[in-house]
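How it folds:
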Amino acid sequence: MCGIFAYLNYNVSRERRYILEVLFNGLRRLEYRGYDSSGIALDADLSSSSPSLGASYAGAPPLVFRQEGKIENLVRSVYAEVDEKDVNLDAAFSVHAGIAHTRWATHGVPAPRNSHPQSSGAGDEFLVVHNGIITNYEVLKETLTRHGFTFESDTDTEVIPKLAKYVFDKAHDEKGDVTFSQVVMEVMRQLEGAYALIFKSPHYPNELIACKRGSTLILGVNELSGQNSGKPFHDVKALTTNGKPKELFFSSDLCAIVEHTKNYLAIEDDEIVHIKDGSVSVLKFDQDKEKPASVQRALSVLEMEVEQIKKGSYDHFMQKEIHEQPHSLTTTMRGRLKDGGILLGGLKEHLKTIRRSRRVVFIGCGTSYNAALAARPFVEELTGIPVTMEVASDLLDRQGPIYREDTAVFVSQSGETADTLLALDYALANGALCVGITNTVGSTLSRKTHCGAHINAGCEIGVASTKAYTSQIVTMAMMALAIGSDQISTQARRDAIICGLSSLPKNVSEVLKLDVEMKELASSLIDSESLLVFGRGYNYATALEGALKVKEVALMHSEGMLAGEMKHGPLALVDENLPIIVIATRDACFSKQQSVIQQLLSRKGRLIVMCSKGDASAVCPSGSCRVIEVPEVADCLQPVINIIPLQLLAYHLTVLRGFDVDQPRNLAKSCYRCCEHYRSRLEPKEGRCAESSHTSTTMCHGIFATSSRSSSMASVVWSTVATTPRGWLSTATTLLLHRRGMQGKIENLVQSVYSEVDQKDVNLDAAFSVHAGIAHTRWATHGVPAPRNSHPQSSGAGDEFLVVHNGIITNYEALKDTLTRHKFAFDSDTDTEVIPKLAKFVFDKAYDGEGDAITFSQIVMKVMRKLEGAYALIFKSPHYPNELVACKRGSTLILGVKELSGKPCHDVKSLTSNAKPKELFFSSDLCAVVEHTKNYLALEDNEILHIKDGSVSIFKLDQDIEAPGSVQRALSVLEMEVEQINKGSYDHFMQKEIHEQPHSLTTTMRGRLKDGRVVLGGLKEHMKTIRHSRRVVFIGCGTSYNAALAARPFVEELIGIPVTMEVASDLLDRQGPIYRSDNAIFVSQSGETADTLQALEYALENGALCLGITNTVGSTLSRRTHCGVHINAGCEIGVASTKAYTSQIVAMTMMALAIGSDQISTQARRDAIINGNVSEVLKLDTEMRELASSLIDSESLLVFGRGYNYSTALEGALKVKEVSLMHSEGMLSGEMKHGPLALVDENLPIIVIATRDACFRKQQSVIQQLLSRKGRLIVMCSKGDASVVCSSGSCRVIEVPEIADCLQPVINIIPLQLLAYHLTVLRGFDVDQPRNLAKSVTTQ
């Protein structure tokens, strides 16, 4: 976080001016580690001793200089002060010790008083420079205050020199003499946290002491006489026995000593290095021993050259390092590609062990984590071993399970990243095989891991990592090739990749030619407030890393997203102003990314598409996107190519916006507007659409049809469509065979139809004994909102076939080409229009050959055989009057049955044999039929349902059998009440559902907590199998994924089985390994989320035990899984899921209690939720409205959480994003310093969740770091903790009830739900129908 440096010359004369410049240059080399303030200390002249100190010094008093700002501020200040004080810069010293520090603030704002060296007080008897954080500084500060010490700074560091003085004074009074090392050793006994320290004191002139625990510290040695006589020494022992002239250096990084010497020693944890009289002593501190042991250490030789730490002809280090990548990749692979194979000497002895691993766990932070994520699919593919991704800080927060059978791969550019090293110690303690991937030979990571690979990318000075990222990916690709080299089945694949590796530097040189193009693109984005980057498969990591680069250096709120999750919230942000980069290079996900581009274009998105060379017309046939073409390489290496344009974009954006590229705001390299303007930009435009966090592009429309023997059709169609919360971008209906499309919401259509009915003098009082009508509300996937793109879509003139459709036809372009050759003309931009035209083509062809013998269901069956994709369809045709045919594959479709006389029917068979009066309904959702009937049937995939003459026939389509089989199905009874789909006294459904949570949680638990234990009947028969699983895999999308993430720590804790988190779309994109020994848990509010259901089929095919967590009895998820739990949260109409989220968490908590031993009282947990806590937190409603009013003009919002509340941060940000259309991002607090901190200033609102749990102290530290950067903080804490989390009173505080840690997310999310709701209302947006989103399926 900070850079510390020291210089001691022994038996060689150096002028004070020279010493100053050595210290300044050392800080310049370390400035990338921190640059908000700096300071130095060196000796004054002996004659300048101050008698006022009350103590005689053995040496000269120190001169201490501190300054806010960058190093050059300090240089100017020092020279000005030196002139003012008439300090003699020409004075020479044969022995002198100076220390220096450049700061990255963690405690206290940048200011001279908070700069280092920190002092013991008057006289500067002890001075300390420090890199790290002292976690117990508050306790030490209170103790020292009671002993009469006064504190001048806000830092944690100041306690250290004051503690040293306390120890010195006490020892001096009791014993008389005490050595410097004894003082430091006693100080170390009292300190907790991570630190590297250098001490200087006039009581011990010309001595320096350094020690470390968890932070990097290097000793550099330059023997000045070694060139002329004798051999240079090779270990520290030699330094203790010779008095030759030498220079000794302490530094946080090797780059600060390379210009002085190549001989160095990396100091180990708990070592104390004492320099005295030119001798170096290394002592090993042990908390349990009075005296430290002496240690002999060998020196290492640094291979770095001075040229590597200079910019050369480039303007910035980041620019240089981007353009060095052809060379750095060459050095990464040098000597490792041999005879068509891979040779990694550092792994050779451990390959067999790795191949037998239970799982591979990738662990890293920031850019290194992203590099591992890019390599994950290839490692899974070649090794066949499941790969789990872990952010180092999150693994530590959760104390996630690591086993002896695991291979833990730690990735760190420096090899000194603090969280990664702590995670390494944790994995070693648990017996895992630990592999290191690092750029730094001799780093702590390379020394402590069992084996590994150096990436050899060369020195990287720029704070934003570039060349190390690409070299990490290539190194891990080579690792996967080496591990998988024993599999014959992948030989051809491996050969192709190895060939691709050889040509990779050449392709990187080619993509670097886009530099000018990226500068032009940057100039067009300079005024943008936000940027989204969408990727998937291999390039999900590219999206994350590209966005991180922009965030780090350009200070623009950029967010990388999984393209498959776009429809689960982020799509709400899309408009013509927000720039969006979509990565759509050629790989297995290419066609899916084409679909994403179509959906974004249909919402007038401002698209920048990255594609393979020659694919510009394929990804953007309309020419309305900006296209970046890159060379095509092997899919697993494509991320290396694709990240480079984004690195260049980030670089040029930063320069054009006038920010510092190499020293971005708030970051350090770790070794370790007016209302009217706002309204004009964010006011929802007519023709927007919506989708919820539980849906997918195949669940995006509302379709409805009714067949009746006696009814007024207008009222039925309007009332039922208007209550379907599925899409409102454009609507249409068929009424008396009248087709009408209307852009906008349902009421636009209502007004238009009644107006046209009046104009055409249509008799609305006409009665029909039999009639069939269809209706549709649209969520656009293909084509902008417009009448021509609305449904029903038609076969052409005369509307011979009409279709309403929910889903996506993936082969519509090929069908369109075929039909065009048969003279069909197309009027819309939709994928749907091919369906009615294909029906007419089938009908015409059959009529020509067979007369009128073909039935309506036969036509539909032939159409289905041609269609690919997911869909629910309802067909209507004047050729088959009063008939309707419906079919489905992958999208939900419901048949509702209302028998108007006699006994109600209980199965479809009875409907085929009676002619009694009845009303029949098709709907995408049960909520549209509940006011008409409670008898329903959920259609299965590939079923065709034909209504004719009041009879219902069901056929099962089999692609391999010509004639479909007839099916008999039982009807179900709907338990939903009409009141559940009404708002009651609330203004909006979302508001109602937030306030219903005390009740919904009660129903979730009703009957399941008995006699101090949990009873879940749906799991009872499978408990033993679940307990013997090798792995639990949580799979979901959007809000459901976040709920599973909240439950993960408790599941790991109680059942002791490793838990892997999978976003459903990403699992499918990667084809990630799922095994028979896995327990796959699928979470979906509706039970009909398309990606989740596809992932379920994938898991079933692979033999896993599949468990469902859903709100919908009778849903596909509940039918297809082996067992599961219904959350019973009640009907949820609002697009933004609220009560289902909290019920999902509670259901999964009960599941963990049922599967594992009951370690805590479930009754107490039940009481904690039911008896007042949720009701209590809902009383914050008014407070959240006031908070919302203060945030109304903000462009962005960040939410930080960790441990149990990492998911709360993600879900809270998602709620704000979904409904209030504010770019909000949830983040892991432990990752804050790895990029997001650059965004922090006094304008950006930041919510920090800091309720009482195991991570509470860490969150306190996060708050301190944010306050030191003048962050605009809103802190959520437990009741009574306001003064603890924000003692300065400079934060806004939200106090919530404290409950058991695993249930705290249930409480903590509610204020954020309320905040999102009130923000949306105050900003004038539609709460229940947010722009671009639609709910998948509501529930009973």
In short: The first helix runs from residue 16 to 30. The mean pLDDT is 87.
